[in-house]
Amino acid sequence: MTSSSKHAISSSTRRKKRPETSSAKQAGTQLSQVIQNKAKEEASILLENTRRDIKEEIAKAKIVLREESAQIAIELAGKLIEKNLDTESNRKLVHKLTAEA
Fold this sequence. Notes:
Layout: H1 3-84, H2 88-100
């Protein structure tokens, strides 16, 4: 076999492999695109779920704060009323109101 015939076979072999290589590259590129799109979609869903969870937790925290604030206000009002009832003028007022009732 001469060097020119070896070169011809080698060139022929290369030409045959190129379409396969090109097709494999295209398949790889398509697969890469599919994987990237899927990852973006999953990231978007995860972000949306996380935002929803945060909003729910904020709403729960606001409810708890309102309840605790109301309880503190009631306790403070009770203490103020208790303190005010210790004065003589308030006692007279209470007696007067209970007598009228």
